[in-house]
Amino acid sequence: MKKNARMLAAWLCTLLVIPTVMSCADTSAEQTDADTQDTGAATQNVQETLDPTQAALDAAVAKLSGVDYGGHDFRIMDRSDEQDPNWETIDVWAEAESGDTINDAVYQRNRILEENLNIKISENKVKNPYTDARTSIMAGGDDFDIFTDGLSLLATMAVEGYLVDLNTMDKLNLTESWWDQDLNRDLTIANKLFFCTGDISIMDNYGTWCVMFNKDIAENYDLDNLYEHVNNGTWTMQLMYDMAKEVTKDLDGNGTLEDTDQWGFLTESYNEYGLWAAGGQRITDKDKDDLPKLVAYSDKSVEVIQFVTQFTQDKASTLLADNVKTGDGGCAFTNEHFGGGKALFIYGGMWLITKYRAYDVNFGVVPAPKFDENQERYYNTYSYANCTAYSVPTTAPDQARTGTIMEAMAEVSKYTLTPAYYEVALKGKYIRDEESAEMLDIILAQRAYDLGMIFNWGNMFSTITGMSTTSNADFASLYAKREKATLTAIEKFIDSLESIE
Prior knowledge:
single chain; alpha/beta; 5-stranded mixed sheet; 4-stranded mixed sheet; 20 helices; about 10% strand; globular
């Protein structure tokens, strides 16, 4: 029963222990003994660190004793690389161990589940899970057990009544630590929840937004230590804006700032919402009955959006991807521009951290800044389309079985997939300094979800994300135009809840 769990502990040890590489000329017996002692001590320390994880993994496996699903093929539909290779699902299935950290963790996790539950885990990669899943459910098909896609698409399916309310699945305990409690709190509606994530996946982390900065440019311009500002609570939008203006430079000296010059801040219009949310603002909150209510307009929200718009539209500091004429929205260009060492800041998904490993750029990572120092905490948002979660179709034939397998998958992932991604791959492989690793803890621990974002009632979310590219950046007037439609859309949604299972 625990063979694979024990094998996994040994596998994690080999990943976490970084061997000492000696010079060819340094071969004395004394040096060899010292290195052996150091390596032995390191191995012991790692094993001691892993023991609690191993005990928890053993306990998770023990819960599966006596469960036998007779070789059931547990089918998971997810995203292929056809639409966008950057967002291909990589944490569901692995054919064999390959030496890649994430691949091998997925393989080991699945072997544990397959052996102990007597199931087979299979993956169906498709270009558009939303389209394929919706078609299958409408036809009453039994083509998959669970599926994953971006939150906004799952929200659409929830409205259409195609998703199971996960709170009705008694084998699924969403209060456990391996589920994302921020999502569970923020995205329930009338105490119904139609999507979930947590340790079961790393793709939600890929879709979490953060700020990456060029450490060499920061040093060349003698800028303040950003990590200290974060820890002191003084990492603010104004500070970021000031730094961005200071380093923006006409590299070719032609008197005009162009795409190829050095920029302080790289972003896209979509991210205007992200910065507004980082300032503690939301489109919707919830009332005492756990129903959405519109809260987008206030004196504070106007103050924050006006500053954000000024920052993102300032051509003396900011290169907006939307203004780069490359035919792909400009994001590929700005991503490459930062990788080429020609920008101080870029604001985007954590998947970029893995991308920049292939570049020489010396970068660090910090959360999105506060609006001002009076703000009590940092808020980090996510891509409404690419932050993925799991849902169960209403056509699922055996919800007890599905819930048991999902619960086991999430719990076992906490002690396999999560440490492989977070401690070994992200912190050990992609992040280049210890301070950035500490920043990741802040970013992932302080995410804020917003129903108004993923449902986009009355196009209020679209209005905010479009402000950077509109000639009318007056939020008060734009809000006034959208308020009635948004309130009506929310009201209709609440009325429709009774028909949603």
